[in-house]
Amino acid sequence: MGLPQRKLFTKDEYLLLEERANTKHELINGEIYAMAGAKENHVKITGNVFRNIANHLITSPCNVYASDMKLLAGCDCYYPDVFVKCD
Fold it and tell me: 44, 49, 33: which is closest to 83 by C-alpha?
């Protein structure tokens, strides 16, 4: 007897679940993963990366975002530590 098949979620199903969730999750290849809290050193490094990128983008049409901004990439959804979006 084989293992039961895992349910794969669509982006729309994920977004609906994420609206109601108390914690953040990511959708990768149809599977939903709970986000773990970061340790102090990780937060310091992320802050430094964010600040350095933001300083370089002051006169740019681009914006830098931190981990609370969801990034939709194809069928996947992430909360990256830092990302840049240019309009």
Answer: 49
Q: Which two tokens mark 20?
A: 């109601």
The answer to whether residues 84 and 69 touch, using CB atoms and an 8 Å cutoff, is no
- Summarised one tens digit per residue, pLDDT across range 23-41 is 999 999 999 999 988 899 9
**Euclidean distance between CA atoms 18 and 38, whole angstroms:** 20
CB contact at 8 A, 50 and 66: yes
**b/e code 67-85 from CB counts within 10 Å (16+ = b):** beebeeeeeebbbebbbee
Write down the pLDDT at residue 4: 78
Domains and CATH numbers, the chain: 11-86 (3.90.1570.10)
Q: What is the pTM for the complete model shown?
A: 0.80
